[in-house]
UniProtKB/TrEMBL annotation, chain A:
Principal location class: membrane
Organismal lineage: Bacteria, Pseudomonadati, Pseudomonadota, Alphaproteobacteria, Hyphomicrobiales
Entry's localization field: Cell membrane
Membrane topology label: Peripheral membrane protein
InterPro entries to which the protein is assigned, alphabetical: AAA+_ATPase, ABC_transporter-like_ATP-bd, ABC_transporter-like_CS, ABC_transporter_ATP-binding, DrrA, P-loop_NTPase
PANTHER family, per the entry: ABC TRANSPORTER ATP-BINDING PROTEIN, DOXORUBICIN RESISTANCE ATP-BINDING PROTEIN DRRA
Name of the protein in its database record: ABC-2 type transport system ATP-binding protein
Protein's UniProt keywords contain Magnesium: no
Molecular-function GO term, any one: ATP hydrolysis activity
Family: Belongs to the ABC transporter superfamily. Drug exporter-1 (DrugE1) (TC 3.A.1.105) family.
GO cellular component term of the entry, any: plasma membrane
Family annotation (Pfam families): ABC_tran
Annotated keywords: ATP-binding, Cell membrane, Membrane, Nodulation, Nucleotide-binding, Translocase, Transport
Length: 329, 268
């Protein structure tokens, strides 16, 4: 958990205390503390509506918090928002681009706003287009881009000047597996170059793959934080994964297993797969024996460390709403 | 993507010197000009209805209303310019609503730029739109036989007044653009509000034949006041009182709604 690539700088990238924001009666973010060291990819994991976007928008100075305080790269959110804006970049959940303009014009617009002049404007735009594999589409209007191209351009737009902290709000939501992998590669190479990245995701696999540390958020509260290994360990070492031959008997199996082992069973979103936390192999044995005695046939079973899916389930009591397409643990 | 090259070319830590507010505003103006290049269809939207109005009113009602189509066109054209500008002032509100919905303004707001510069860009777009639409309609009017007696100077003054009117009315739609969720709501609201203002005015007919209660409204309707001043300028006989009356609404709208727009923008 001690990130070796961390810079010597004594100031943390992000330091938040008790950040809160409510909309009417809804406590979108409810007293969140966050410490993100420099140079790290930090993941904020939670289902839809957990408050991830609101938290990010507050840290990116787009939304004033109702309570709490935060420092980004040492600058106070309330006192120095302009300084923060000078050293961060934010890529929102929906590609924040001008659809009528071409990809190149979008980047030129931002480069000029940052103060690039003359030849440097076009040079910077073209460098980014090349780096993000968009050189061929540079003269096309953004409305003709695919989802993956938009995402890449959107991230490129955040890098016109390399930010100290890059906020990425669900960077791969809605992308196909290929495009997702390419965005992941980009995020990793940015991190290797020393950019601190705070990303939100509802994909457990994404947090597992990218983030050195993960904060799990549900209903506006942080319910756990650690490395992916720590989170898995905190949930318990052993997980029993089962697949039934006959999907119609899944409820019977669920009831039996809960009775025998005393732990809550998580049903996968589709198919006849079940998983549950078991503290000892004996307990797992007893559960399996009970299923066999009840004549419930198993197509497959295995013992192993929990996936982040299961961690999330154990922490929140409900499964995430959107499962990642490629990541069946 | 090749990781090595990507990493090296991605990094650009030497931030250029911070540009001035004016420079930021000009960049947004450039964006507005690009929009004309990429979406030339919008010009069609801007002038189609007024051109149709001009043709229909002149040739269908003109003779009946003013004795001859030529006399009616002479009366109607300055008014249709006012109507066009008032209607077209909703476009920046719609654009703002689109940008907000797409999250584009989030990006602008997270940049270290003068926070009002995106609005300056909208204004540039507005002014261009008003000038282009007015010139096109004026051109068609002249083809049909309209003659501005105030000459070139009168026309230039009239165009300036139109830009001021568009600027003033634009604030209404910027506020709506910030408050409404979709651009089409902005448009619907605009039509509902503008229709009565435009029809219950002296744009199309002389209010002398209207019932007294309606004339009370028509005479103080800002659209009437602006139209009277426009007729004066284009005919070369505008009085200071007419001009003053025409400027009341744009000035009041700017004074009240500009601060509201900024407040909404900063607090949304």
């Amino acid at each position: 958990m001690h990130d070796t690539s961390r810079k010597e700088a004594s100031v943390a990238a992000i330091e938040a205390r008790g950040l809160s924001k409510h909309f009417g009666d809804v406590r979108a973010v409810d007293g969140i503390d966050l410490d993100v060291p420099r140079g790290m990819i930090f993941g904020i994991l939670g289902p839809n509506g957990a408050g991830k976007t609101t938290l990010l928008r507050m840290l990116a100075t787009l939304l004033p918090p109702d309570a709490g305080s935060a420092k980004v790269l040492g600058f106070d959110l309330k006192q120095s928002p302009h300084e923060i804006r000078g050293s961060i970049a934010m890529t929102g959940q929906f590609a924040s681009l001008d659809e009528d303009l071409t990809g190149r014009e979008n980047l030129i617009l931002l480069a000029r706003l940052w103060g690039f002049r003359g030849q440097a404007v076009k040079q910077r735009a073209d460098d980014l287009l090349t780096a993000f594999d968009l050189a061929d589409a540079s003269a096309k209007q953004v409305k003709d881009y695919s989802g993956g191209m938009r995402r890449r351009l959107d991230i490129a737009a955040s890098l016109v000047v390399t930010p100290g902290v890059l906020f990425l709000d669900e960077p791969t939501t809605g992308l196909d597996p290929m495009a997702r992998k390419s965005v992941w590669r980009m995020i990793r190479s940015l991190s290797e170059a020393g950019v601190t990245i705070l990303l939100t995701t509802q994909y457990l696999e994404e947090a597992d793959q990218l983030a050195a540390r993960i904060a799990v958020i549900d209903h506006g509260k942080k319910i756990a934080e650690g490395t992916s290994r720590e989170l898995k360990a905190a949930t318990g070492s052993g997980f029993l994964h089962l697949t039934l031959v006959d999907a119609t008997r899944i409820e019977e199996a669920e009831r039996l297993l809960e009775e025998i082992t005393g732990s809550k069973v998580q049903r996968s979103s589709e198919g006849a797969a079940l998983s549950l936390m078991v503290d000892t192999p004996q307990n797992a044995n007893r559960g399996l024996a009970a299923l066999i005695a009840a004549n419930i046939e198993l197509a497959d079973f295995s013992m192993g460390a929990p996936s982040l899916d299961e961690v999330f389930f154990a922490l929140t009591g409900h499964i995430t709403e959107n499962q990642p397409s490629p990541g069946e643990a | 993507m090749d990781n090595e090259t990507a990493t090296t070319s991605l990094i650009y830590a030497d931030r250029p010197a911070q540009p001035s507010a004016v420079s930021n505003a000009l960049v947004f103006g450039w964006r507005a000009v690009l929009k004309f290049k990429h979406v030339p269809e919008q010009l069609f939207d801007l002038v189609m209805t007024p051109i149709m109005f001009t043709l229909l009113f002149t040739f269908v009602f003109g003779g009946a209303l003013s004795g001859s189509t030529a006399a009616y066109l002479q009366y109607f054209l300055p008014g249709i310019l006012v109507q066009t500008v008032v209607f077209n002032s909703m476009y920046s509100g719609m654009g703002l609503s689109t940008d907000l919905g797409k999250g584009l303004f989030d990006r602008f707001r997270s940049l270290p730029i003068w926070s009002l510069s995106p609005f300056a860009g909208l204004m540039v777009g507005d002014i261009l739109r008003h000038l282009i639409a007015s010139l096109l309609i004026l051109f068609i009017g002249i083809l049909l036989g309209y003659r501005p007696e105030g000459g070139i100077i009168g026309v230039i003054e009239a165009l300036l007044l139109l830009v001021v009117i568009g600027f003033g009315f634009g604030w209404i739609f910027l506020v709506l653009g910030l408050v409404m969720r979709t651009p089409s709501t902005v448009m619907t609201m605009a039509f509902t509000g503008i229709m009565p203002l435009v029809f219950a005015s002296n744009i199309m007919v002389d209010p002398a034949t209207m019932p007294g209660w309606l004339r009370v409204f028509v005479d103080v309707n800002p659209v009437s006041l602006m139209t009277t001043a426009m007729r004066g300028l284009m005919a070369g006989n505008a009085t200071a009182a007419q001009l003053g009356a025409a400027l009341i609404a744009p000035i009041l709208l700017t004074i009240t709604l500009a601060p509201l727009t900024l407040w909404l923008y900063r607090h949304k």
